[in-house]
Amino acid sequence: MKRILLDTNVYGKLVEDTFIFPLLLDQKTCNNLVVYGTDVIRKELRAISKKATDKKGQKIRLYTLYVYDNLITKANHTLRVNNFIDGLAQLYMDEYKRSGGGVGEAEIKNDFLIVACATLHNLDIVISDDKRTMLSTAALAAYKWVNQKQGFQNPNYMHYITFRDKLLKKGGI
After folding, report:
1. pLDDT band for position 171 (50/70/90)?
2. Residue 101 CB neighbour total at 10 angstroms
3. What does R_g of the chain's alpha carbons equal in angstroms?
4. Can you name the residues that pair with 97 across neighbouring β-strands?
5. Span 20-44, mean pLDDT?
6. How far apart are the C-alpha atoms of 164 and 159, rounded to whole Å?
7. What are the tens digits of pLDDT across the range 120-164?
8. How far is residue 55's CA from residue 45's CA, in Å, rounded to a whole number?
9. What string of DSSP letters covers the chain?
10. Signed CA dihedral, 152, 171, 6, 8: sign only
11. Can you give the residue ranges of every domain in the chain?
12. Can you tell me the mean pLDDT for 15-27?
């Protein structure tokens, strides 16, 4: 069983690619995957405009929240940010800046909080489609360096398209 965390942007991908959501639910039902969320991700989903619609005219905000709530079904699968997680995210930020990361703190802070939650709860995989911030070379190096220095196991990071391909092949994640 793999314990995974889907970045906020993955929920948008699940809205666009409706074939994957049932496969993901099936993997969850078969106990192959446990999907975790965070209060940070849910807040980002709630911040989507109420007027935004997809190509079919569905309200994106409602559908992403529906997908989230159906994947994160147990209260203990919502990871809360606390002072320790906030501190780890700040260490990521400091290392990211030191190594020349170019995205500003306001834009990348939530990504670091999400990764800190996954790290401190020993999740196996963080899945994202965000190559510019969360999965950038500088961010990945910062996670690795800080986690190694702090004695934490670094989660594996997977791009959404790789995750999607693995679900479609039913070979497991």
Report:
1. low
2. 20
3. 16
4. none
5. 91
6. 9
7. 999 999 999 999 999 999 999 999 999 999 999 999 999 999 999
8. 18
9. -EEEEE-HHHHHHHHH-TTHHHHHHHHHHTTSEEEEEEHHHHHHHHTS-TT-B-TTS-BHHHHHHHHHHHH--SGGGEEPP-HHHHHHHHHHHHHHHHTT--S-HHHHHHHHHHHHHHHHTT-SEEEE--TTTTTSHHHHHHHHHHHHHHTPPPPEEEEHHHHHHHHHHTS--
10. positive
11. 2-169
12. 88
Phi, psi of 117 (to 5 degrees): -60, -45
Q: How far apart are the two ends of the chain, measured CA to CA in Å?
A: 9
48-106 residue pLDDT tens: 999 988 888 888 999 999 999 999 988 889 999 999 999 999 999 999 999 999 999 99
Torsion of CA 104, 108, 110, 114, to 10 degrees: -150
Domain 2-169: homologous superfamily in CATH? 5'-nuclease (3.40.50.1010)
